[in-house]
Amino acid sequence: MRRRKVLIASAAAAAAATVSLLGGAFSGPSRVNPLEILAANAAGSPEQQALGRLLSGLSTGDTAGYVRKLERHVARRRSDAGSLAVLGLAYQQRARETGDPTFYRLSGSALRRAELAHGPAALIAQGEASLANTRHQFRMGLRLARQAIGLAPENGAAYGALGDALLNLGRYRQAFKVYDRMALVSPGIASFTRVANARELIGHRNAAAEADELALETGSTVPENVAWTMVQLGNVRFNTGRLSEAAKDYRRALRRLPGYVHAEAGLARVDAFEGRYASAIARLRRVVGVLPIPAYVILLGDTLHASGHERAARREYALVGAIERLFAANGVRTELQTAVFDLDHDRNVPDALRRARLAFTSAPGIYSEDALAWGLFRAGRCEQAKAHSIHALRLGTRDALLIFHRAMIERCLGSADARSWFERALAINPNFSILWAPVARRAIQ
Amino acid sequence: MKRLALVAVGLAALAWPALAAAHPLGNFTINRFSRIEASGPRLYVRYVLDMAEIPTYQAGRIDQRKYARRIAANARLAVDGRPVTLVPLRSALAHPRGAAGLRTTRLEVILAGPILHGRVSVSYHDNNFTGRIGWKEIVVGNTTPSTSHELRAYPKDLLQSPLDVTTARASLAPKPGPDLPPPLSSGATLNAPDRVADSGFASLVGRSHLSALVILASLAAALFWGAAHALSPGHGKTIITAYLVGQRGTPAHAALLGLIVTITHTIGVFALGAVTLALSQLIVPDTLYPWLNLVSGLLVVGIGAAVLRARLRRRRATHQHHHHDPPSLRSLLAVGVSGGLLPCPSALVVLLAAISLHRIAFGLVLILAFSAGLALTITGIGLVAVLARNTFRRIGFDGPLVRLLPAASALVILAAGLAMTVRAFPKVS
Question: What ipTM was estimated for this complex?
Fold first, then answer.
């Protein structure tokens, strides 16, 4: 009981601190008193009770055990719709922890069964919204999240899903407003890390790190969530070239959740940029031995390439090709990462450009737009590329890779500005890419 | 011939992106199974490794004996607390086909343990591929059932996390009889595990020999699957019941409704199958389903509104006269169509499989039987409703309550339709 009181008090304090998390850049003064919302939350709608159950279940750190307990429970009571909905959400946490997409399928079935059994509608809609987001069906995610908020305006997670959908659809201002609102409705690790992400997008990297720190101070008890935030913080620092601080964050995450692949991959990236290729490769082999997702396979390939292991690099690149084919067979048609990979390595450029365009039309965010610009540049259409690059940088994002792409486009157009763009990219992060940072350095020599 | 069944499963994957991974546990998984057993005086471990597409690709060319040695080294066994070594005896390797033209791997290894002198306590820890996602199962005893049928049929429709068992403790006694190592799989069982536990209806079309008896049995099974499937939520059971009760339907109407449901469902499956085949590049059936949901929801709203309006008008027109208007053919049609509009996924899979196997006629008949089974259940429920109402009337229950039934049923239909529509709406994209 006392712990709960302390939690509420610290949450209230955090809420008060959060009102202007975005520095008022996108939201005016709020008319909502955070304490009132917290009081309303404490009153406890069925949704809040279910969420409370979920949170305390996950807090043990043994998500697998908790999920199994719920599975046994719903096997006995097939029509316990509330437990089915909680199980559906818990599966999503399992998917995040293991990277195993099987759990997304299970989450879908559990939520569907909860729906058929007339379970808590708001919670189900929220679960389905975040599921749609993970499947890159952002328009559906948007609709379902709105529905969830309509049903339960105090459910912070639904705001998270709504903001994520908006963000991926390129509707940044709306997304930031929603995140602000989320930080008010449910101040905590989930909302503060989103605010951090928003701040990074608008180029306020120090402020982003502050929000991540604040997220860690909320005392979340779900180990994976904490480790994830530490990795995010590490990434923010890495992206500004502060490698040793980033490494510290990644190590912290590994201490919190031993073997956490995303932290291991972060450390590998630091190793690679500091020239410790052997250590980086060993780490990355462990990472793709556990979770062979394209981002890490590409990083391994690029590291092997940079250290002169050409044949081994080609093997990893071929694996990316196989993953690409699987995506296509699975009906995933807009995988941005593999499109950018093809463009980076000058393979299948026409098809990669087509995929980048598809990705941009289905989710017109700044990263898909940058990929489109990069593809147009690779296809020699630098005029069009520039227009998209300008638009991709409209938020003032200080991402060295985006700026480097712009530099290449400017150089293609014979612009005198090209040099200053290269310099800007290197100033933000001299180690922004194993592949491209050397190119940028050569360009300004 | 088992390959044909595999084709059917592959096609199911084609039609449903959610199931599309040819490996039912996901393209990333490395799945492990150990069976610890005594054969004669000796302890054996039968180890099965099932790798999905990506790990198989990562592994490159697999050296069976090297893998067997590695597996033996990482399978830690202790008898009465003392660690003992396991020796790989024999192994079998196959590469069943996976999604996107990639291969998967099934490797079976027989590991020989020590001779047992009397009952011992055994502790076993599988330390192979730690950290790698996948199904991990250990069973003790040669007849103990395996949940995944030794990684051949993973339970798919249950809400069950992949098993994650890496340690086992048990007591084991030597068996009378000779020391015979457990057998390895071979042929089709090794080469083409279809890996899905509940292929059910969809597997019918892939049967190898189509003798008259097999066809007859398949049709009966299809009928049964359809009838059972109709009992799951949806399929307009509430609406049809409410309609028949409210509109004073007769048993003949119930039968007619069943017929309409059968025809609509059959046509729906064929149409969706055609769309899937012709436009597979543009349309994924997954995105079509929400629309069909919405259409049937709106249809039901329409029916409800029409029935309600007719009711009110009739009430105003003939206040005294007790009128027994039979339901019009048009409204019967609408009710039936709303019940059969949504093609069942398994029926669609059968159609696609039948086309690929050049067994189109057989597939069509199977789907017809499935739809008929569907209709049988719905007609049955309708008949029960009609008979129940008639019984109430016969025993003089024709009070104000029963007279209110038509209006009430109209409201029930309207509410059900609205609920369907509201639920379908946010998913339409």
Answer: 0.75
